[in-house]
Design goal:
Elements (H helix, E strand, L loop, with lengths): L11 E4 L4 E3 L11 E6 L2 E2 L7 E4 L2 E4 L8 E9 L2 E4 L3 E6 L19 E3 L3 E3 L3 E8 L8 E10 L6 E6 L3 E4 L7 E10 L2 E2 L6 E4 L10 E7 L7 E6 L18 E2 L2 E2 L1
Parallel strand pairs: 1-9
Antiparallel strand pairs: 2-6, 3-4, 3-7, 5-6, 7-8, 7-9, 10-12, 11-12, 12-15, 13-14, 13-16, 16-17, 16-18, 19-20, 21-22
């Protein structure tokens, strides 16, 4: 199995009774890998009419509350097996009969396209998106983002209201982030947009190392020991890769 998954499942919120679809395009391999799915760590039994896998994509219809959980796409061939990242699915109850629908009927049919983001000088990102399908405007949009590097974090939500753009502030310089957008209405959320990755440019640290000390080494051969602590976290402005030490003394400098 070469490379990584060409398309991995994304988080999804659906309403009971509707169909839900999770995308998956496995890595290329020889022989061509076979795709199965796991829910909460258990391989799905694809017998019956509710589960259908077509070209790797999993379709579940009609969705039930019990379908909520963590889904993983599994690609396997004679050479080995590889799992995709996990796709959280939440299936909500239908609205009571006779109650006015708070969400447009075609909320889950909406398709959003997230354009390339722009890194702003103040460690922020400006995002813009557009609707790809003719549909009623949703109640609003939520931007989901998380850090990928140097470490992966949980998703954070930013409510953008009805605007087709948003500025995400207070990001970490030198970090790589992942962004997507989701429509919502009446407590129900639609499908995720495509994903964009953006690296926040670094700047030089805005403060010096702290608690610098110089001491004589125990070996007594003229060696000194210099120690310090990093600058305050808010002053890093990126990922500190190392330090340089200079000094002056009798007989020359460093």
């Amino acid at each position: 199995l070469r490379d990584n998954f060409r398309l991995q499942p994304g988080d999804l919120v659906a309403t009971a009774g509707q169909a839900l679809e999770l995308d998956c395009v496995p890595p290329s391999g020889h022989p061509e890998p076979r795709v199965t799915w796991k829910k909460d760590g258990v391989t799905l039994d694809l017998t019956g009419d509710r589960y259908v896998v077509t070209n790797g994509k999993l379709r579940v219809a009609p969705a039930r509350r019990s379908d909520s959980g963590l889904y993983v796409c599994v690609a396997a061939n004679a050479a080995g097996e590889r799992e995709s990242r996990g796709a959280h699915v939440s299936v909500l109850d239908r609205l009571p009969t006779g109650r006015r629908e708070a969400a447009p009927r075609d909320l889950l049919a909406m398709r959003l396209h997230l354009d390339n983001g722009t890194a702003l000088p103040a460690a922020a990102v400006q995002l813009r998106w557009r609707m790809l399908t003719p549909a009623l405007a949703p109640e609003g949009y939520v931007v989901l983002y998380r850090c990928l590097l140097p470490a992966s974090t949980s998703w954070v939500q930013h409510d953008a209201g009805r605007e087709l753009s948003a500025v995400i502030p207070a990001l970490r310089r030198g970090y790589k982030y992942e962004f997507k957008v989701r429509p919502y209405a009446g407590g129900t959320q639609g499908l995720d947009s495509n994903i964009r990755h953006l690296w926040i440019p670094e700047e030089v640290p805005s403060a010096a190392p702290q608690h610098v000390t110089v001491g004589q080494a125990e070996m007594g051969n003229g060696t000194v020991v210099v120690s310090w602590e990093p600058p305050p976290p808010e002053a890093h402005n990126g990922i500190i890769q190392g330090y340089k030490v200079w000094g002056d003394g009798v007989g020359g400098g460093w």
